[in-house]
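Model it.
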Amino acid sequence: MFGTSIHWTTFFYLLLDTVIVLFTLYYSTRKYSSGYKRFLSLGVLFILYNATGGFLPIENFPGPFILQYIITYGVAITLCVYILFYLYKEYDIIVLKYNSSIKNLAILSAGSFVVLYLIPYFFTESLDYARLLFTVPISILAFVFLWIFYKRISNPENPNSYILRRNKLSIISVTSVALLPILTVIGDYQWLTFTAMNAAFYAITIIEIDRHLYFLENKTKMYEVFAMNKEQAINPADTKIIYENLTRREIEITLSILSNLSYKQIAKDLFIAESTVSKHASNIYKKTGVKNRRQFISRYRKKSK
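Modeled.
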């Protein structure tokens, strides 16, 4: 299309992702919604991924030919790392231990690209050889991560259907990341590679929509929680309080606490550490003007009556 190598499917995803980002940007500026900076950043990265991977390489690009591949691979690597960062930060999912922080994963990915792709290319001047040398070990590591991730969050007995939906969609996102190196080795099939990768963005988009609907379904219960604070009780009909007094993760944990679940059970259902639940709970109690769980539930029940 347009005298470039971009496939019509890639161009379609580029337009669709742009529409999603623009809508989210508009929606996040309204008074009843906030906290979408990470999602907007993710959307912008997908737009860059579709644009650079779709239009490049081109003949009239300034600089050496390999520079175009450095740009496309650099954007793709950044996107994959950011998807994992998004899941870590948004859902408190801790998959790996030891030195497996997002920062270290980013350093490992960038270092592997230099050592296994750029250096072999400069010695052999073969893109195919460099691509194969880089993507094979990365593919193995990606699928190992996918398996650990699946084992970490797989719990079909979880009674919370909302959490189950989110976990399945998260697995789709990580699967897309794991498939990218293999699809790169197979060949330049944009319709296949970009479909698989954009599936990650659409899965996360569905997660965000589902979470918003989940909060709206429980907004009456949340109004009673916020009414514990006199200042917040002045305007209990303002939907904005759902997002600005507690974080989205704190709202999820609040609803679990009000369902009489223990911290241990909440941690199991949300696939996070019990200490993480306790930390969130402390923030919830502080923001709602109570000292502990017992007082929180007691005052909520009085307000609801």
